Amino acid sequence: RTTMASIRQGPDDKLHGGLLVEGFDQESCHSRYKSATYRRNPGRQPSKHLISKLRRHEALQRRCGPGTAAYSAALDQLKSGKNAASSDCKYLVSISYRGLGNRILAAASAFLYALLTDRVLLVDPSNDMDALFCEPFPNTTWLHPPGLFPLWSFGLDTPERHGKMRESGALRPEPDAPAFAYVHLDYNQTDYDKLFFCDEDQRLLSGFQWLVMRTDSYIVPGTFLVETFREELARMFPERDAVFHHLGRYLFHPSNHVWGLVTRYHDAYLAGAARRVGIQVRVFPWEPDSPELLDRITRCTQEEGLLPRVVNTEEELPAATTTRRGVKSVAVVITSLKGWYYEQVKGMYWEHAAAGGEMVVVSQPSHEEYQHYGVKSHEYKAWAEIYLLSLTDALVTTGKSTFGYVAQGLAGIRPWVLLSGQANGTAGASSNLPCSRDVSMEPCFHVAPLYDCKRMGDSGKIVPHVRHCEDVPTGLKLV
Ligand code: GDP
Question: Is 333 touching ligand 1 by the criterion CB < 6 Å?
């Protein structure tokens, strides 16, 4: 008999505990209602408050989004160059850039900010956002018309930049103010741009009908520092270490093409295994293959009990463990731009027996060698591989990588993070540990503000659940 509890928490809870709604056309997006059947870890339950907030936000997106009279009026206002005196419909345009992991984290951050400020989220359609993801909002679109806000036309010199207007004292959302304010949260932001995470700036920005935000970062931990937002955030996310987990599962459904890549690979290499382990080896094209990194991967997976140790070939395994029947298997999926690490790990489990007689099947979906910009087939593979990592039961990731952050958040698991030789986090090189378990599944906000808004101070000590990251010590993360 099916009980309410099993509907809500079983692995086949296709709506993720109420995060998603029924009613989308299933053919246009197979992954939306099917993904739950591929996840052994059902993940965290969203709060009732988050669910009702999402439903209200969907209604706002429909009422004010592209194609509505309100949207046409807002566009006219934007073209007039003057801010609207008042308006029921306000907009946040999100421009994300860099690799796919960065773009996903930036879009999730923009969405949370839109939820907090009751703004319609519109995302930049360049960067293949439409080809990679299904539409997250029912009966409307989150893509703004192409060319409305050209990606590269925003930067430090943009006159409407929030930090620039703040510095000159011109940040006043009065009728003679510009039609939009531009929020610049790029690596080269100024101290004035960082005031975005302060209450006074939020008050001033709330008067603009249009905001344009350009970032490549997961700015969410910064929004938890803003007093104005704290109560609402606490209600939406009583479990503060699961913010991206919920936002990611709500927003990012692989398009049908990507879903084909995910499911074919999953069924061929992962579905039959008793355990599934993902290893993300983020290397850069110019780096030579590193026996030292390979050693860390091997030690990490074996010392932490994720993969079996290997025994010397000379040692005889007891006959009972070499029979094929009933042998447990572990599937290891390695993602990397290079093929060398996969070749070595696979070779190791071929040339040596695994202790305990477990069968270790190692595979790697692709090795693209270098990062291609604007190439659809490359983006498809990257997204499919992030998603495949998120379907595993245990994850080993590379610190600082947004690619890995997205996988761990969607999976709902705390990864073991490979420590680089130069790592100067709390468990850095001196301890000679190959990896350390992350304190939470949340991504790290790499370019976080360095101070609270009233004085220079440590932004990792303002609220207890926002702390510095181990992999990027100046960054901030939710725990
Ligand atoms: P980050 O640079 O590690 O933070 O991750 P990003 O996803 O933002 O950027 C790296 C980009 O390089 C990815 O989006 C891919 O285009 C490519 N890339 C890096 N590692 C892999 C990998 O393991 N598999 C594939 N297919 N692409 C990768």
Answer: no
Both structure tokens of 348: 């190791």
For ligand 1, whether the C-beta of 68 sits within 6 Å is no
Report whether pLDDT(5) > 50: no
DSSP 249: H
Spell out the residues 6+ positions from residue 187 whose beta carbon is closer than 8 angstroms to its own: 216, 447
| Residue 435, SS3 per DSSP | strand
CA distance 461 to 285: 37
Q: 10 Å Cβ neighbour count for 429?
A: 13
Instruction: Report yes or no: 362 and 335 within 8 Å, Cβ to Cβ.
Output: no
Q: Is the CB of 282 under 6 A from ligand 1?
A: yes
- Which amino acid would we find at residue 77? Q
List all residues 6 or more positions away from 396 whose beta carbon is below 8 Å from its beta carbon.
277, 278, 279, 280, 297, 300, 301, 306, 415, 416, 417, 418, 435
Taking the centre of ligand 1 as the mean of its atom positions, its distance from the CA of residue 1, in whole angstroms, is: 44
| Angle 378-384-387 from CA coordinates, rounded to 5° | 145
User: Cβ(338) to ligand 1 under 6 A?
Assistant: no
Q: What are phi and psi of 180, to 5 degrees?
A: -150, 160
- Residue count of the chain, please give it: 479
Ligand 1 centroid to residue 31 C-alpha, Å: 22
Query: 430 to each of 190, 232, 292, how far by Cα in Å?
Result: 34, 41, 15
The predicted pLDDT at position 6 comes to 36
Tell me which DSSP letter residue 468 carries.
Answer: E
Q: Which two tokens stand for residue 246?
A: 């919920």
What are the pLDDT digits (tens) for 433-467? 999 999 999 999 999 887 778 766 788 988 999 99
Please state, in angstroms and as integers, the Cα–Cα distance from residue 355 to each residue in 214, 310, 311, 328, following that order: 51, 5, 6, 12
CA distance 362 to 341: 11
User: Within a 10 A sphere around the Cβ of 397, how many other Cβ atoms?
Assistant: 25
Q: Are strands 416-418 and 435-437 parallel, antiparallel or unpaired?
A: antiparallel
For residue 402, give the ligand 1 atom closest to its CA.
Answer: 4
Q: Does an H or E element contain 233, and which?
A: helix 227-236
Greatest Cα pair distance, the chain, in angstroms, is 84
Ligand 1 contact via 337 beta carbon (within 6 Å):
yes
Least Cα distance to 127 among 443, 380, 385, 447 occurs for 380
For 472, other C-beta atoms within 10 Å of its C-beta total 18
The top-scoring range by mean pLDDT among 51-55, 166-170, 426-430 is: 51-55
Helix or strand or coil: residue 13? coil
How many helices (H) and strands (E) would you count in the chain? 17, 14
Confidence of residue 424 (pLDDT cuts 50, 70, 90): very low
Cα distance between residue 167 and residue 237, in whole Å: 34
